[in-house]
Amino acid sequence: MKLHEDPLARELLIAAYLQRRLDEEAAEAFESHYLGCDRCFEELEAAELLAAALRDRKLRRDQSADVLLLRFADPAELIFGSRELAELAGCLAEPRDSKVVLDLSRVSRIDSSGLGELMRLHAHLLRASGALKLVSPSAPVARLFRVTHIDSILDTYENENAALDSFALR
Ligand SMILES: [Zn+2]
Fold first, then answer.
1. Lesser CB count within 10 Å: N end or C end of the chain?
2. Dist. CA 154 → ligand 1 center (Å)
3. How far apart are CA 103 and CA 107, in angstroms?
């Protein structure tokens, strides 16, 4: 296999292998190569890790008309260093997203980093003439919102429909 002479062909081959698009013979040939090739092996491992991370994203995105709905797939903690918080911080990949409904029902814990991220998101969406609406915070999270007076800044709703309706009223 003259894999390392053509970087693009190699990249395409690795992608095809990961997506199981190679025929049996080509797959076997590549397997016997990468098992003895550190460079290909490392690249394959990195690509697989990335694919796995994308597969089990914790923050799910849905769209309802022009509103972006964000829900956590599993119990989540919006605390310093958590993956959920990192995903929330990167949730506005699309600049056109200005109206966001964030479901907090599976969020068991928020710390100052999490609160800071919510405020940052809120300020960002306001500048884009949109808004952040929070939905069904758990009891401890709702209590934290009260004691920090964040509940006077961020709108919280009992369920998604109520949050969506509030956008329609504006
Ligand atoms: Zn190689």
1. C
2. 53
3. 8
CA of 51 relative to ligand 1 center, distance in Å: 20
- In the chain, DSSP assigns E strands to 59-64, 67-72, 76-78, 99-103, 107-110, 131-135, 155-157
Q: Report the separation in Å between the CA atom of 46 and the middle of ligand 1, taken as the mean of its atom positions.
A: 14
The answer on 107 and 46 residing in a single domain is: no
Q: 3-class secondary structure for 13-56?
A: HHHHHHCCCCCHHHHHHHHHHHCCCHHHHHHHHHHHHHHHHHHC
* Confidence at 8, pLDDT banded by 50, 70, 90: confident
pTM of the model: 0.69
Give the model confidence (pLDDT) of 36-58 as tens digits: 899 988 888 888 877 776 777 88
Q: Mark whether 12 and 80 lie in a shared domain.
A: no
Same-domain status, 17 and 99? no
**Ligand 1 centre and the CA of 128: distance in Å?**
47
For residue 30, the CA-to-ligand 1 centroid distance in Å is: 9
pLDDT digits (tens, 9 = 90+) for 113-133: 999 999 999 999 999 889 999
